[in-house]
Design a protein that fits this description.
The protein has 286 residues and is of the alpha/beta class. The protein is 43% helix and 15% strand. This is Alpha/beta hydrolase. GO terms for molecular function: hydrolase activity.
């Protein structure tokens, strides 16, 4: 097993924390995390993939161990996160990569992919949409998306910035909750209690409504380039269930769909299964 290194690098004055493991010169896997987590969600997957690949897993600004710039000088939007992650890729010297996207990592990863055409050699999808669909999980956000008022923002915060919501992301749709380490959702919730972290989350949850053009551009790119694509999502996800994840084939007809019997945070209980699927897939397409 390769050791994991915990490093930081400056990107436009923001200290970006990242996990790195594997052998330099091996094919690179870039892992982009979801909300409200950090690269910590990839601990097991990094360990399982680093024997063969060179793995990088950064924390976004405002997440995990990266800097959390004040909102007065850094706009927490997906465009901004995508810009920082694109510059991160260049600064750490990644030329080509396999992109692993989950949750927020999808819309951030789409931006990285579109800023670096032809550098993405394969795509691994875990519980993020390419064709958005409706979900009751987003219901409390709809009034905030519609009017953007302080009152709607406060109501969204009262719902989403809670331990119950974070815990349910991990446990809903999981067949055996005893396989999910509670420290994962407890740590995510703890990080959300930092000064300003809740406001950062609300900024990004509000910005979800702007992602339509990015989805369209990503669909066009994937449709034309047809990169090797593997979908290893939890099929019982309340946000992006199995039927939504199957729609990747509408854009990339040769996408391999290998749904697992889990929920939104499928790595929490199915990391070994997902790693095995990835090893087989990447061993054939790279």
């Amino acid at each position: 097993m390769n050791q994991t290194h915990y490093r930081t690098i400056d990107v436009d004055g923001v200290s970006i924390f990242y996990r790195e493991a594997g052998t330099p010169g091996a094919p690179v896997i870039l892992m982009l995390h979801g909300w409200p987590s950090s690269s910590a969600m990839f601990r097991d997957l990094i360990r399982e993939m680093s024997a063969t690949y060179h793995v990088f897993a950064p924390d976004y600004p405002g997440f995990g161990n990266s800097d959390a710039p004040d909102r007065a000088r850094f706009r927490y939007t997906f465009d901004a996160l995508g810009d920082v992650m694109s510059k991160f890729v260049d600064k750490v010297g990644i030329r080509e990569f396999v992109l692993y996207e989950t949750d927020f990592g999808g819309v951030v990863g789409h931006r990285v992919m579109l800023k670096a055409p032809h550098r993405m050699k394969a795509l691994v999808v875990q519980n993020n949409p390419l064709i958005p669909g409706e979900s009751p999980w987003f219901g409390p956000l709809v009034p905030y998306w519609k009017d953007g008022t302080a009152e709607s923002r406060a109501k969204a915060g009262q719902h989403y910035l809670t331990l119950d919501v974070v815990r349910d992301l991990y446990l809903t749709g999981v067949r055996d909750p005893s396989l999910v380490d509670p420290e994962q959702w407890q740590a995510d919730y703890f990080w959300m209690q930092r000064p300003g972290a809740g406001e950062t989350s609300l900024d990004l949850l509000y910005d979800i409504r702007t992602n339509g053009p990015t989805f369209k551009a990503a669909q066009d790119y994937l449709r034309s380039q047809k990169p090797p694509t593997l979908v290893v999502s939890g099929k019982n996800d309340i946000l992006f269930p199995g039927d939504n994840q199957q729609r990747y084939r509408e854009i990339v007809p040769n996408a391999e769909i290998r749904l697992t019997d889990s929920g939104h945070c499928a790595l929490a209980d199915k990391s070994e299964e997902i790693a095995t699927r990835m090893q087989d897939f990447l061993g054939r397409v790279l």
